[in-house]
Every structure is written in C-alpha cells, then in structure tokens.
Amino acid sequence: MRVLDASLGVPLSGAEVTFPESGVTRATDRLGVAEAVPADAGAQLRVVVDRLGYELVDTVLAFPVERGTVDLLLERAPVGIPALTVAVGRAGGGSRELARVMFDRDVAVGAVGMTQAEVKAMPAVGEPDVFRSLRSLAGVTSVNDYEAGMYLRGGNSDQVGVRWEGAPVFGPYHMFGMFGLFNPDAVETVELYKGSIPARHGGSLSGVVAARQRTGGASGVRASGGLSFLGVRAAADGSLPWGGARWLAAGRRATVDAVQVGGPYSFYDLNLGLRLHPGEEHRIGFSMLASNDYFAWGEFFGAGDWLDSRWSNLVSSLAWTWVPGNRVSGEVAAYLSRYEGELGIGAGAPPPVARNAITARGLRAGVTLRGERTGARAGLEFEGGPVSLSGSGPGAYVEGDAPGSYSQLSVFGEFEQWLGPLRLAPGFRAGVERSASRRFFEPRLAARLHAGPLAVSASLDRTHQFLSVLHDDRYPVPGAPMWFVRERGRPVSVADGASVALDAWRGERWTGSVGGWTRRFRGIPSWRPRASRVVSDMAFHDGEASGWEATVQRHAGFLRGWISYQWARVRFTDGEGAEYLPAWDRRHEVDGVVTMPGWRGLSVSLRATVATGTPFWVALGRYGGLRYDPNQSVNDTPRGMGPNGNRFTILSSVQGRVPHYERIDLSVRYEFHWGLWKIAPFVSVPNVTGRTNAYGYDPRSRSSDPDESPLHLLALDQIPPIPFVGVDFRF
Asked: 478-498, pLDDT tens digit by residue?
C-alpha cells in the first residue's frame, strides 16, 4: 500500500495507516509504502490513513487478485492551532515526521534529520545554509565561525561523507569553505548519521550527510527565490504532460563580487531534477548539481602575498525504483561526481599553484524486503576513478606530482529481526579496493529495545576510508580542498566505535535523547612535514575520542526548537608517541535554538551557543621566506629579502586553548502577500551581543627588530555583529 500527495503525486513518509478490524497500525517509509495486513484475494478491508497536514481518509479497499500496490491519495488540509495557522510546506512533512521516519527505518544511534523549513528558519550568516544549520545539532562540533565544515565523533571534517541523491560530493562548500554548497531552495530533507552509519553508506569514518533534492509540483509552474548578501537565488518547478513527469530547476549566483566586498569572489551553483512515473510500479529520477567558485585576493598575508583559489563540482545521478508490492522494492542507480580544484598561495603574482582533480563513477543496485517481523536490505556498489594531485614548483601547497586512482567494489547487507519489543539490526559491508588490492570488512551490530514512549539503542561498528584531504592543521589555509588517494603500502584509515542512546517520544510535540559514544582511530593522515609538502612524506597517526550528549526538541506549537549539550574528549598520538589535541577538541558545548514561525506573518529565530575554546599551538618565533612555506627550516632561508621578505611563524609542540566561546544569532522575517506573490524580507545578525571570540593568535614581536623575541600573541577575532539583509519570494 502506497500513500501519495494528491496534488504533487509525491510519496508521503510518516503517515499512519490503520486497519481497524485487526487493530494494526503501521507508518509509511520514505517511498510512502506501508505493509498491508494479510488478506485473501478480493477481500475488503477498512483502512484509515492519517497524516499531519492532510485530510483523514477512511475507506474500504477491495484487494485485487494480483497483489499489486494500492495507491491512496491524500488531500492537503490546514492544521489548526490556537492563534496560529500553519500550512504544511512543500518539503513533505515536518521535523517530527522526519525524525519518526528515520527512527523507524534504521537502528542508527544518534541519527538526526532536518527539513527545508527548519534550515530556512535558522539564523544565518548571509542566507540560510544547510551545513551551518546542521552544526547547531547535538554532537556536531565546529572549529570557528568562518568554516562551515563539521566534525563528528572525534573525526576531521573530511571524514564526514557528503552525498547528494546518493552521489559523493568532494567540494561541498562555497566561499573558501565558509558556506555550504547546497541551495536551500533545492533541498527537501537532510539526514545526518553520527558514528553509527548504516551499511549502505560506506567510505567515511565518522559520519554521513545525505541530502535529498526537492521534487517538482504536479500542476502549473511555481517559482521561488531570494536576494541576500551571499547571492541571488531562483527556483522553479512544475509538471510535464507525459509520463507523470515533474521537474525542478534552481540556481544561485554570488553578489559579493558585484559589490566588491573584501575582494573579487564569484560562484554559482545549478540544480536540475526530473522525476518520471512511467507506470504504477516504476519511478525514474534524474538529478544534477553543478557549481564553480573563484577567489583571488592579493596582499593576503602581507606585501607581495597572494591567495588564488578556484574549484568546481559536477554531480549527477540517474535512478530507477521498482515497487511491485508492499513487501519488496528495488533500486538501480548510476552516478558521476567530478571535482577540480586549484590553490595558489605565496609571494608574487601568480603564486605557485597546487591542482587536484577527481572523477568518480559509481553504480549501485539494491533490493529491500519487508515482512511482518523481519526485513532485509542488500546491495552491490562499484565506485572509482582517477585522482590527480600536483604542484607547480617549490613553495606550492603541494610539491611534486601524486597521481593515482581508486576503485572500490563492495557488497552490503542490513537485516532486521523483531523478538518481542527487541529489534535486532545486524549488518555488514565488505569489499576490495582494487587499485591497491586492499580488502576490507565492516561489521555492524545494532539493537533497540522499545518500551512504550521510550527506546534504548546500542550499536557497534567499523568503517574504512581510502580518500582523504591534505590538512595543515597548524597552518590552515582557506580554499579548494586537496584530496589524495593512498598509494600501495600506505595504511588505510580505520575507525571502530560504540554508541548507546535513550530516546523518548511524547505525543506529536516533544522528543528527547541522551547518549554516549566512543571511537578509536588508526592510520589517520597528518600532514605536518618539516621541509617539504610531498604527499609521500605523509605521517599517519592514531587517536581516540569519547563523549556524551543530550537534547530536547519541541516540534510544534507557538515556540519550537531544541536545546542540547555535548561533552567530548579527543586525543591523537603521532608516530613518535607524542600526544596532542586536534583543533576540533571542544570539550563542552551548549546549543539552543528557538523559532517562532508565522505569527501574523512575523517569524523570529534565535540561536545561542556557549562552548569551550579550541586548542592552538604556541609560537616560538618567526623567519623570512619568499614563498608560503612555514614548514621550511629557519637555517635554510636567508634573511633581509627586501619588500617581499615575508615572515612566517615557527610553532612549538606546546599547546594552549583559546578562551571560551559565546555567541547569539538573531533572525527576523516578515512575510506578506502582494497579489499572487509571497514576499518575505529578513534580517539576520550573527553574534548580536558583540562578543569578542578568538579562533587563534597572530604572533607579533615586541621589538622593532622582528627577529628579536619574545613574541606576544594578538587574538584573531571571529565574526562581529554584522546585519545581513535579504528578501525571499515565491508565487
């Protein structure tokens, strides 16, 4: 049995399907499918379907002799709340429904989701952003205000896999990593898996971000968009008169380069989507995401220094879904993800350049079986392609050439068995990385015990990662990420983890969770060479992390939002046995989000964060050099080079921690009607209280002679209270 939106024709997840005669109630999955109770061919059954935002359906169905799929169409209806009327958004369901669907679908401890409406309701820097919104959730750590990357379960930001409609995205950011790549107008939902990753998502150590593209409308053409400090957006969707086709087109273009704020910068991204329904049992979907970024800033570090970076993404996927009945469904998908990046930094124009390119092709096939008390999902996946990394000469961010390729062939299985109130969910992923003849096996074991509105979940898992980004954690540089593949004989990154959580549900408004986790890492690349930037000089470190978190969320009512707390401890050990704290070791963090949606057209949202400061390495002194190469020895560089004698910091092995972090963001939006248009001007103010937060220190000499010591540390401030004004529209 499949439940669909009557106007859009899209599947409705989280709908309650009740069979009154048998007293059985089931929830539909993300395909809108719910298993019917056993019935003889031709039998008549009374069915009641209820979903928030839709009219109740109470009908009698005569099941056909041929056991196909029965479609039930639900008409939209407003939800009445005292002094407030909320219309269900086109994303198809709210946060409560998404949370319930993810909870029922997988035993994945700590998995959370976010809808398009939640993303747009969050206070923003520039405009609503998927990645910055996810950073407000429990268990997600950030390093500073200028970076949109996420750190999960003790892992680095590149250990969080990003997928768009199932395809990997290698450069998922705009503006040298400050904003996420995904256009909020094109996103339907985003799912975040922290540590406890389902077997079907492979290749990442500490987490996965899985985004789904919005589906087009069923009739007419609808448009939306906006203008903000970050860029101008436009999106349109509609239907075609053949094959039940629905389409979506969305794009963004930067505005900061047009007004010359801070330097020349430009970007664009484009989303295209097409959904076909050629038959009752078949669905075909195509999606494409293209983007391009360019940034060039002279005098970045000082006299004669340049930062020049550009990168682009092309991600496309084609999927066929087959749903012949309530108990089985299948999917075959092919995808392509191409990434190209350049990073030039140093003295002179043009500076020495490092180049990176990945072309990943993939093919995935899977089948899902559903039973009364059992279930299974199994599949086969191939992914691989060439990876190139090269530098133009000495002083480049990467020196020399590091060509390579990766080719992974894997199988996965996820199983489910109910034993009374206990739900067992073992799984595995196994395969071979063919280019280096590496075999891997990733067992997963998860279980959940249900007790009314409470559920206790636990999981054990192992994950592998073959592709990583070159991170210079002591000297972070903004710009295009530089990916590399491990050559034969180099260790593969492996993480073993355990998680446990207690989840609570109270009606349709409240959910809560408290849980703990621990992870051990082996073979994590650490790029801190002493004299060169050759990839073959990469070191591989081990580490361990542990923590716990708690969150309470209110999904409906006049005030919505959540409050969360997390404690985490992360430590790594280098090849010489020395222990250090990575830059993302943030011990304590409290996040609170409150939104007041749609009160007489006025919406207000507030986010507050209080957190421990992050670690940094203390400076010993400075030396001069013609090119950007802070790892070069002092004795190898002559002094007194004139106007281009740039000075770089020498860092010690001693670490400190910046002061604690406090920030409050505020966003106010007012929506009004103008004919067929809905127009919503907004203003967002990050750090509205003007708190001075430091993300690091710049060492300065106290003497007129820069070679003399001691140095004093000048704090580098994070985002000040700058109001960002914009307007959104739709019709």
From this structure: 788 999 988 777 888 999 999
